[in-house]
Sequence to fold (613 residues):
Amino acid sequence: MSATLTPGGLRAVTPATATRPVEKRWERLAPYGYVAPFYVLFLVFGLFPLLFTFYVALFDWNPIGDKTFVGLENFRLLGEDPRFWNALRNTFSIWIISTVPQLIIALILAQVLNNTFLRLANFFRMAMLLPYITSVAATAIVFAQIFNRDYGLLNWFLELLGFEHIDFMSSAAGSHVLISVMVIWRWFGYNTLLYLASLQAVPRDLYEAAAVDGAGPVKQFFNITLPSLRPVIVFTVIMSTIGGLQIFTEPLLLSNGTLTCGTARQCQTLSLFLFEQGFGSFKFGYGSAVGVALFGIIVVVAFINFLLSSRLGKKG
Amino acid sequence: MATTTHTRQQGDLQPRTTRTRRRRGIVRVRWYTYVLLALAAAACIFPVYWMFVVSSVGSEAATQLPPRVVPGGNFLNLLRLVFETVPFVRSLINSFIVAALIAVGQAFLCSLAGFAFAKMTFPGRDTLFLILVLTMTVPAQLAVIPQYMIMSQLGWVDTLQALVVPGLVSAFGIFWMRQHISATISDELLQAARMDGANSWQIFARIAFPVVRPAAAVLGLLGFVNAWNDFLWPFIVLKSPDLYTAQIAIKALQSNISVDLGLAMAGSFLVTVPLLVLFAFFGKQMVSGIMDGAFKG
Fold:
C-alpha cells in the first residue's frame, strides 16, 4: 500500500528522503482525499436518490412524510393508467424525431467541416456551438413565437407559399415536431464538434488512398468515416438516449408551463408525468414508480442502442 | 487543442501547395459546402438574433407581417420595464453566485481528482475510475423526488446551496482533466519534484495545476454555462421569488399573461447576454475544449 507517483520506480526513492512517518501516512491517503469529493457527492445526490426511488415507489407517500406500504400496487396502477402509456408514446415519438435527424445532420456537417482548406472554419464551429450556450428557458419563447399559429414567422412563410397555417402545439404530431426542432437546434452543433474531433484523428492518407482508388465522397463516407467514428457514435447515441428519454424542459416551456403539456396531454413526456404526479399531485410514491419505469426503459433502450450502434460500418 | 491549431496552420499553407493538393481532388472545398455550412450557421444564429429584434422593438415586431428583421431602439425601455415587473437584478445575482461557485469548484476539484487519477498510483485506482466513467450514464434526473426529499431533510429546500453543492464536481470534468494532465505533464518533471521532497499536494499546486490552468478554466467556463442555464432543478427547489435564478425569473415573466411578449423576450435576451459576452471572448477555447474532451478514433 503506497501512494507514489507513477512510474512505480519512485517507491524505492521516497522512503530514503527525509519524510517523517506521519507525513508518509498522509501521503498514502492523499489520493483518496483528492478523488473523494466526487464520490461523496455522487453517493448523496446521485446513487442514493436513485436507489431510494425504488423504495419510495413501494409506498403511498406524501410530502409531509405520511407513508403506507403498498407493495407493487403503484406499478399495477401505472400499468392501467392511460396517462402513463400516453406519456410513454410521446416520449418515444419525441426522442426518435429529435435524435435521428440530429445525429445524421451532425455526421454530415462534421464530414463537411473536416476540410483543411475550409475558410471561416472557426466561425462555423463557433456558430454551431451558439445554441448550446443559450438556455432552453430563453429560447423556448423564441421558438414558440416562430411557430405561433397566428403570427409566427413560419406560418407567415407557409401562407406566402399558399399553405394553411399550422397550429403546432395543439396536435400531438405538431407539438412533437416543434419540441424536436428545438432539441435538434440545441444539440446538433455540439455533436458535430464531437464527430469532427474524432474525424480529425483519422489519418488523411486513408482518404487520399481511397480517392486515388477512385472512391467518391459517398463511398469514402461509408467505408472510412463511419467505421472510424464508431466509438464516438456509440457515445453520442447512448447520451442522446439517456438525455432524450428524460426530456422535460422543452415540452414544459413550449406549452407555456403546463405540466400536462396541453389540454389533451398531447406532448406530456414521462419526465413531465413524473413531475406532475410527484410535485403537482404530491404523490411521491406514484411519481417514483414512474421514475422506476423510466429507469428500466432507459437501461433497455440504451443497451439495444449500444448493440446496434457498435455494429455500424462493420462488414457482415 | 493541438489538433485544431494543426488544422489552422495547414490552412495557411502557400497557395502553390494548395493548388497541387487540390488538383488531386481530395480536399477541394466545393461551393455547396459553404452553402450547407452557411445554412447551418444561420439556423443557429437566427433564433438568438430574432430574440434581440423583438426585444428591441416590442411585441409589435412579433405580430407585424411581413416580419420585421431589423432591430429597433426600444431595448433599454423594455429592459427597464422588466426590472420593474420582476426582481430581476436579484435573480441575476443569484444565478451569478451559483454559476461562479460551480465554475470554481469544478475547475479546482476536477483538476485535483484528475491529477490523482493521471499521475498517482494507489490501490483501487482503476476500479474507482471505472465507476466514475459508469456514473456518467446514470440517469439521475429521474430520481428528483428522493433528491428533493434529501434536500428537505438537510433543510436546503429554497436555498442556493441546494443548487451549488451537487454541482461542485462532475465525472465528466474529472475524466477530462485526467486526459489533459496525462497528456501535458511529464512524469520526469514530477519525479524530480518528488526527489526534492515535495509531497503530492505541493506537486499538484505548484507544478501540475499551473500547467493545466487553461484547460481547468475552460472546464470552469462550461460549468458556468451549464449552471447558468439549468432549469429543472432550480424550478423544483426554489420557492421564494427572492431566490429565483435568472432562468426561473424569465419563466415567471413568460407565463405571466399580463406581460407583453416584447418584455418577456427582453428578459430572455438579457439572461443570454452574459453568456454571449463570455462566448465572444472564449468561444474558440470552448470549441476546442469540447473537441478535446471527445473520443479520438
